[in-house]
Each structure stands twice: as C-alpha cells, then as structure tokens.
Design a protein that fits this description.
two-stranded antiparallel ribbon; alpha+beta; six-stranded antiparallel sheet; endopeptidase fold (from Nostoc punctiforme); single chain; 3 helices; 148 residues; 28% strand; disordered C terminus
C-alpha cells in the first residue's frame, strides 16, 4: 500500500485563511497579529516552506536590498516574471521610503497586512505602487506540509 501525501496548501489559500487577523508591526503569530512580513512567513510555513527573513525594519525604509538578498538566498523561493498570477509574493514600493509585501490570490486580488485598517485584507484591482520583485514557491526545493 502506498502512503498518500497530504495535499499541499497553495500560498494564496494559506494567505486567505489569515484574512481578518489583526495587524501588528513585526507580528509573527496570527493569534497576536501579523505585519506583511509575518503574513508571508506564516503563509509559507502553512505551505511547508520555512523561510528566514530579516527582522530589522520599520514601517518606512529607505532601502530593502538586505531583504532582497536574504530572500534570493532561500531555497524554497524562486524569482518569477511575466504576468502576475496566483500564489506569488510581491514586493512593491509604495513611495520612496515605503515598501510592502503582498500575496497574490490572482492577477487582480492581493492579500496583505493593511496597517491603516489594522488587519489582513484582500485588495481587488492592481497591486499598489510599483512592483520591485516577485517570488513563487520553488516546488523542487520546498517540503510537503506533512514532511516538517
């Protein structure tokens, strides 16, 4: 008899399960609140992908190069290009000192930690600001949720 692997949760489904969680700067626990980095970390974790991201940042940052290099070194994430689709982590620049991470549920729906609304929400339309970078889970290097 062959063991059945548990179905892998998609990144957008994991993120959608967090809609309504309260916003907390540097938040990493859905029970107490998440920020945009915490949202991405939690959604990735639910998909079986463990990622380490920098923790030293504020609501406003003049540069995110250290975060970009940290993300590019992660085995379970791969840069992506072309039209925006579901299950992507998207880094946008909202203004010269404000960067933000979102998770795409589709090319026109984006789940993110909204500081003003104080919760995780789903935005419809285009992602705000200009897209700086995008990543997808690299399925060849990530784990099934049941493997961790």
């Amino acid at each position: 008899m062959t063991a059945v692997q548990p179905a892998r949760l998609t990144l957008s489904a994991a993120a959608a399960s967090l809609i309504g969680v309260r916003f907390q700067l540097h938040g990493r626990d859905p029970a107490t609140g998440l920020d945009c980095v915490g949202l991405c970390l939690e959604a990735l974790s639910q998909c079986g992908c463990k990622v380490a991201l920098p923790t030293r940042y504020g609501l406003r940052n003049s540069a995110v190069d250290h975060m970009l290099s940290a993300v590019s070194e992660q085995a379970c994430l791969a840069p992506c290009s072309g039209p925006v689709g579901a299950d992507e982590i998207i880094l946008v620049r909202l203004d010269p000192i404000h960067f933000h991470l979102l998770i795409s549920a589709s090319g026109t729906r984006f789940i993110h930690a909204h500081a003003s609304l104080r919760r995780i929400v789903c935005l419809r339309g285009k992602p705000p600001g200009s897209i700086i970078a995008r990543w997808r889970i690299n399925n060849t290097n990530s784990l099934h949720a049941g493997d961790i």
